Amino acid sequence: MPKPPQPSGSAKQLKEYLEIIANAQESQQGPARRWDIYKRAMNETQTDRWVAYLIDRGLLSGDKTNGYKLTPKGIIWLDLLREHADLVGALTQELHGSRMRRLDR
User: Fold this and answer.
1) Which helix (H) or strand (E) holds 63?
2) Which residues contact 77 (CB under 8 A, 6 or more apart)?
3) pLDDT value of position 3
4) Which of 54, 58, 57, 67 is nearest to 25 (CA)?
5) In the prediction, which pLDDT does 47 show?
6) How far apart are CA 68 and CA 30, in angstroms?
7) Considering all CA atoms of the chain, what is the largest pairwise distance in Å, rounded to the nearest integer?
8) How does pLDDT run across 41-99, given as a tens digit for each residue?
9) CA 13, 34, 42: angle at the middle one, nearest 5?
10) What string of DSSP letters covers 67-87?
């Protein structure tokens, strides 16, 4: 029996960001703060890029002032990534660094 494919690096990264937001919501009983995302991204550019990407795709709602929450679509994606990360690699290929930079233009 063949081994299932490994999750893509992009799928792992997307899962990390969605989990950061979900965990912050659960532990703080409210929206995730920008700082929660920044701690993973490690700089302003990456933080802005990821927040914009997640909002543009309807996975995240909110802003710097009021914080961020997962949308129903974001919750579904997080569940998929937790349970079936090996199957969603192809769906997250656009998150590859060079592709993300092209999206910024």
Assistant:
1) strand 60-63
2) 14, 18, 59
3) 64
4) 67
5) 96
6) 9
7) 51
8) 999 999 999 999 999 999 999 999 999 999 999 999 999 999 887 677 656 655 555 55
9) 50
10) EEEE-HHHHHHHHHHHHHGGG
User: Is 29's pLDDT higher than 80?
Assistant: no
Do residues 12 and 46 lie in contact, with contact meaning Cβ atoms separated by under 8 Å? Answer: no
pLDDT, residue 91, reads 60
Element of type H or E holding 62: strand 60-63
Tokens of 74: 């974001």
What is the residue-wise DSSP string for 19-58? HHHHHHHHHHTSPBPHHHHHHHH-SHHHHHHHHHHHHHTT
- Which residues have a Cβ under 8 Å from the Cβ of 61 and sit 6 or more positions away? 55, 68, 69, 71
Find where tokens 């999206």 sit: 103
CA pair distance 21, 5, nearest whole angstrom: 27
Model confidence band, residue 11 (pLDDT cutoffs 50, 70, 90):
confident
